[in-house]
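Subject: for your reference before the review

Hello V.,

The reviewers asked for a structural picture of the protein, and I figured it would be easier to keep everything in one thread rather than splitting it across files. Below is the amino acid sequence we used in the manuscript, unchanged from the supplementary table.
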Amino acid sequence: MKIAQILIISLLILSLVILQPTKASTELQKIIEYNKPAVVLMYVEISGKVSFSQPIVNQNAIQNLQMKIVELAYSGALGSTEEEIQRNAIRYILAEMAKNPNKYLIPSKRVKTVEVSTGAVGSGVIINPNGYILTATHVVAMEEEELKKTVIDNFLINILKEDLFTAFESEVGIQLSSEEEKLLVKAVVGYITANIVDFSYQKRVYAGLGVAEKGRSNIGAFFKPANIIKLGSSERIKDIVDMGRDIAIVKIDQTNLPTSIVADQEPTEGSEITVLGYPAKVHVFAGPIFDHFSILKPTVTRGIVSAVRTSSKGVRVIQTDATISGGNSGGPAYNSEGKIIGTVSWSIVDPRIGLQTQNYGILVSCAEIQNFLKEANIQNIQSEIDKNYQKGIDEYFEQRYRNAIRYFKKVQELYPDHPYVKEYIINSQTYIDQGKDRSGISFDNNTIIILGVIAVLLCGGIFIILAGIAVYFIFFRKKPSAA
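And here is what came back from the structure prediction:
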């Protein structure tokens, strides 16, 4: 009996070990699939003209710099060979110019005007079927100084830098290295930023819905104009981002949209979260290497809640080690129940190098979001699309493809432009054709475990009965006497 009990317990433990990770993995994937349709790419388009005074060299500052270089060369600080001295002298000049560009470059009377067309990206999530989108204030409400920086960094310097490199290389007679080019660019960016004489622009906000469908030539058709409804604060943007209430609501002119639900309670420290959004490193800078029809599909990263804190401005924030970067701002983070526990605001910057640190991201807490929605009188509700779509996802993951198709087709009727449902219908039909449909079977994982336990117990019982019969015949049954 003891052996049978040990066998049963071992099989039970084995069942749990095998089935539970599979179930946990499936549940996580379902949470992602439930919410992907509600996650949107925010795009701020900036177009207009920028005029700046063209630079000339400040001869007095350059002469003083040359004297310093001569001193360094005589001391041996720039190297021993002519080539080393020349190369290190160039690097020293560029480093000084990058450090204080307006000391060595001064404005001339000539003004250059350039037409600009650029933009910035962020993330958002639909929180009401009538087109209300939750995002970050700093994504959609950039101030003029920030707009200037975006225009210079993302557009202006790109059309000027080749001429800059060529002119500088002709002057010094040396081809610049990549590091030296960066120093020159930094110097020119600093100069232009301080010497813009006119900046006329238009700013438009758009939300990109879901995954672009192949066959439509214009991916821009998936971007809908958005109006700003409410900002998280009237403070300057840089102050808001400094652990302020960096949240905003924008609205697009659409109805019957998929949504995500905001959690009622803040997460516990150490709990797992999933972040969906559009990091610029993938969706902008690496965008050309991907099929442009899939660029609207969000990126998924995971991590834990490292801490729940209150900022110096009294705002509830969540610290996480999930990987987030520029472009993720405004995007949602979900708990294990598939509800939004926060939206991405910013990453902590290392003061020594001025770069974002990895795995120290800050989210605006769901507690702040709930209060914000109440102030805006906006309901966070689940649409009929979501209810049918989630049922379809559940059936799909249980391999009940005929059932799944019924729900997916309801979604399609309500929202023909749903970004994912067509692919699910096609895949479901493919599995049905392959004979993989299990629509007549309705066992879930818990039922399977229970049935497995019963089977083990039955097998154990039969084994004991057979063993008892064998023992009886071997030891207890009387042998017939000889005739």
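For the response letter, the relevant points are probably these. Residues 6-21, 351-355, 479-483 have pLDDT under 50 and may be disordered. The radius of gyration is 32 Å.

Happy to draft the paragraph if you're swamped.

O.
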